[in-house]
Amino acid sequence: MSGKPNILWIYCDELRADALGCYGNDQFQPDTPNIDSIAEAGVRFENCFCDSPVCVPSRVSVLTGLHPEGSGVYHNEGSWKRFQIPRPMTTFPEMFAARGYATADFGKLHVPPQMQPWQHRRPEGAGMKEVQAGCRDKDMISPGVGTFIGGRFRSRKPFPAEQVTRNALAWLTEADRPWLARLSYLQPHTPVCPPPPFDSLYPPASFRDHLTEAPQVSAFERRFAQVVAADSLTGEQIQLAQAYYYGLVAWIDSQVGLVLDFLRRTDQQRQTIVVFDSDHGASLGEGGCYAKHIFAPQVHRIPRLISLPGVLPAGTVRSDICQGLDLARTLFGLCGMTAPKQFRGRDLFADEAPEAVYSSIGFGLPDSKAFPNLGKGEYVGGRGWPRRACIRTAQYRLDCNVRIDGRPADDPDRDVFLTDRQADPAEQTNIAEDPAAADVRARLQSMLNEHVATALEPDPAVVRR
Q: What's the domain range around 312?
């Protein structure tokens, strides 16, 4: 390869790793041949975790190379018009633009309004209402979970998200210099409403017809399961919701095929870095949940595929632990650029793996009435949360409530969850109170306390609606 490589970044919303054929699934074999071809041509990361299990802070972390503690963006409140980011931040697309790249984003952005990472923006096709308008009300499944998780797209108009692909291909056709393009699909985020024929791709009866129980998980996870009211779903609805979710993933795969075919037709395949990943995953009934926001593996773990023919080894699977914000340093390294100090994480192809990765979720408001508190608020006397932080190592996961100012919460508000990932892959058994795990808990808690102590605290005055 000569000259600067192009960068094609395909970014999904709420896509769990095991929704892809190359990662495997314990219920069925997902039909994602085009996405799988990226793994075959490059490197698949088996243990990549998002920086926050909710959209806005995760997206900000990937773009800036900063954990939520460093950006001050902890939840989707960060996209409100009145939200003011606590510090100036540079995004990695801006760094590439400064070095001569044409940069463009197609689809969903969902970051604080002060952030403008891209030279060219086409948001068409990324709206929930556009999809929802194509579905009949009687097809919706259980509005009680917040937004419907099933329904058929029956409009005669094209599926709205196809516009993301069309706009991107039109722009790429005219590109006259090295480019960085992101195709940011809303799917398979709710509304889980696939267009034909993807709404009938998988027989609903082939999926589990019940919510799995997890009585030992944290109170945080149990409360959230209550808030989304997933237990109001019938067995048939649970099956149909899963069939539609995976149908949407197959639709994404069809769009990926169109873009990869463009690279082949224009002879750009060997000079283009291809990245496929997601902002976070999703629960599909595990632990009684249908949604995100928690650190369970189906939500916290994300797919990450990176290929560059002739440079990266084809068909490689990496098991070392990594995180969403590693992407910026990795792309800087592949393009021969020096990463500014702001960007945390590591170059996945040059730096050693860390002992641990960190993630967090919070609200920025001490009196938040958000989901885990069932609308009651829970910050009595300055105690408790509204923030929860997580540390993961190769073997363990620990998460607990912390104060928004970065100080540890007092017991019993801390609600510590600790699991041995090797003994408990589903991460549903809490060993935090097991005397045999006391040393592990103390060490991980100390590491996590040190990490969250760096937190930037948003000003409540600027995040109220």
A: 6-355
